[in-house]
Design a protein that fits this description.
The protein has 565 residues and is an alpha+beta fold. It has helices spanning 7-14, 35-41, 45-48, 53-56, 63-73, 122-145, 152-163, 205-208, 226-233, 250-261, 295-332, 385-402, 408-422, 508-513, 526-537; strands spanning 20-24, 30-33, 77-83, 94-103, 111-118, 170-175, 192-201, 218-221, 237-240, 264-274, 277-287, 343-350, 359-367, 372-383, 428-436, 441-447, 453-455, 463-464, 469-470, 483-486, 492-496, 545-552. Strands 8-7-6-11-10-9 form a six-stranded antiparallel beta sheet. It starts with 6 loop residues before the first helix and ends in a 13-residue tail after the last strand.
Length: 565
């Protein structure tokens, strides 16, 4: 049996079909026949399965070449067949019309399907044949059209767009709220609250159905609604809204009345389940004049929901981890407060995009005695929850060491040793800068991090200072050194992570040199500087970006306080 059809799905689709249907593998061996084909060939299903087409129908062995051609180029073929089968017939030969379709595409080809009707019965069965052919095409293309990303809402929108208008006039995908993030208030007893992830209607219906809940909104379903019954029974529910005799609550009746008013007549709701866990529902609605949902439609809808469930489960698990990391990073990467009224600080954190796991970029500012302050910029290697947790550990250890009032290279030496002893298995780069607002100097030490940038007030360009670079933290090698850089009042110290400048296929030194063009007018706002930086360099980023800008406010000359005797 082809891998993308299970036995139950095939049986539900074709066992009751009046057209004869067969599924064959690459070697033209029968893997499925429906009852109509058993009657047509005069042989039981067991007599077909595992045997090749020429073995079962030797009088029609000439069709084998046509079948192999369909497997080879994927082009459907229609053939008029004349010959005999094992079924008893009054005629010496019979005529049939056969349609052959390859199943799968490119490297995923797994066989073909044959749909056969007698010539004398074509007029009556043409419509059923077209419906069956449409169902096959729908399910064959679902795998490449739905679930193309690891984003839940995108997958839901793909599903809704896929079934409208080919299968329904309106489609809605509703999912349970995420487990991480903002809490959702509890619904009333018996009410199911879902988040509308996608809604699509054909033509004017697309705008009219928005009254029932825009994507992103939470929708409450009463206990007697079709959606609630679908989730409770974990099975499809067919709701014929023209049935006025059905007992419904006021909430459900009001929703149905609004649907009838815009021409909607019947709904089919199927559960979206993955690993025995409900994820939400797929609601398919047909308008007045459209055919009612058949048993085959129900089988197709269930199979579509199963396939969507696989993609949504992957997306949900990814989003779960991503949300945990994002919430953890948001809690740990709080905006640093200014260490002193005479020191200005501005920071930004910019994720690459939603498709990338949260990284371990971080920054911090710690006030020190005698009007000095320590600024740190770091980048934990890797992404995800583990990187965010490691980032928090690095930041906590750094704050602990900052209280010992050591020079930057000594802080890095001790931090490197503490990380190695702690068993933390994620290395990190780090740039430390201790600014003395009285002395007009900045002491800088680097553990594998990119160099700092100094922007003097009114200067035509920035200074990129090549400070000595030691190994990343967590390696246990040590060997850090401190460099002293002039940094008077009004000079901006700009620190950043590699996501700002690193570009694929470009030498990192070339990338860093672009920052030499940064300028800031005397008295210009640090926030404006960060806007300029992110506008110029942030759009092409492939990794997270953290930036920090600081300066000592310009004013009258200051003298270091003399400690009391």
């Amino acid at each position: 049996m082809p891998s993308f059809f299970d036995q139950k799905t095939v049986a539900a689709l074709f066992d009751g079909n009046p057209a004869a249907v067969a599924v064959l593998d690459h070697e033209l061996r029968y893997t499925y026949v429906n009852p109509a084909l058993e009657r047509l060939n005069g042989l039981s299903s067991a007599a077909h399965l595992g045997r090749t087409f020429p073995e079962v129908l030797p009088d029609l062995r000439g069709q084998a070449a046509v079948l192999r051609a369909v497997l080879a180029d994927g082009k459907p073929r229609e053939e008029t067949i004349q010959g005999r089968t094992w079924a008893a017939t009054e005629e010496d030969e019979c005529l049939w019309r056969a349609t052959y379709h390859r199943l799968g595409a490119d490297e995923s080809v797994c066989g073909l399907m044959a749909i056969i009707v007698e010539i004398t019965d074509i007029a009556r069965q043409h419509e059923e044949l077209e419906v069956a052919r449409g169902h096959v095409a729908l399910l064959s293309t679902a795998a490449v059209r739905v679930g193309t990303t690891l984003d839940m809402d995108t997958t839901c929108r793909e599903l809704a767009s896929f079934v409208v208008p080919a299968f329904a006039d309106v489609a809605a995908v509703d999912v349970f709220p995420p487990e991480v993030g903002h809490a959702v208030r509890r619904p009333a007893p018996g009410v199911v609250r879902l988040r509308r992830a996608a809604l699509r209607g054909v033509g004017d219906l697309d705008e009219q159905v928005q009254r029932f809940g825009h994507p992103g909104e939470y929708v409450d379903f009463a206990a007697d609604s079709a959606v609630t019954r679908c989730l409770t029974g974990n099975g499809p529910v067919l709701d014929d809204w023209s049935d006025e005799g059905a007992g419904r609550s006021a909430a459900t009746s009001e929703r149905i009345a609004a649907s009838l008013a815009i021409g909607l007549r019947q709904a089919l709701i199927v559960p979206i389940v993955a690993r025995s866990r409900p994820l939400g529902t797929l609601s398919l609605v047909r308008a007045e004049g459209a055919p009612a949902f058949s048993d085959q439609d129900v089988a197709v809808a269930r199979e579509l929901a199963v396939r969507a469930g696989v993609g949504l489960d992957h997306a949900r698990r990814y989003d779960h981890e991503h949300s945990i990391a994002r919430e953890l990073q948001r809690a740990l990467l709080s905006e640093p407060r200014g260490p002193h009224p005479h020191v200005e600080i501005a920071t930004r954190y910019l994720p690459a995009d939603r498709g990338v796991l949260v990284g371990g970029d971080w920054f911090d500012v710690v006030p020190l005695p005698d009007g000095r302050h320590l600024k740190a910029m770091g980048d934990v290697m890797g992404h995800g929850v583990e990187a965010a947790v490691a980032m928090g550990q690095y930041r906590s250890l750094l704050r602990l060491l900052a209280g010992e009032d050591l020079r930057p290279h000594l802080i890095l030496e001790r931090l490197d040793a503490m990380v190695e002893r702690s068993g933390l298995d994620r290395a990190a780069t780090c740039l430390l800068a201790v600014v003395d607002r009285f002395g007009g100097m900045c002491e800088v030490a680097s553990a594998g991090h990119l160099p700092p940038v100094f922007i003097d007030p009114g200067a035509a360009g920035a200074r990129i200072v090549p400070v000595p670079v030691g190994p990343p933290l967590g390696t246990g090698f040590g060997g850090y050194r401190t460099a002293s850089v002039p940094c008077g009042p009004g000079t901006v110290l700009f620190m950043y992570t590699d996501g700002l400048v690193e570009r694929r296929g470009e030498d990192i030194d070339v990338s860093v040199q672009r920052l030499a063009s940064l300028t800031l007018p005397a008295g210009g706002r640090l926030e404006d500087l960060l806007d300029q930086v992110l506008d110029r360099f942030g759009e092409e980023a492939e990794d997270d970006i953290a930036v920090l800008a600081s300066r000592i406010r310009e004013g009258p000359p200051v003298v270091r306080p003399t400690p009391p005797e």
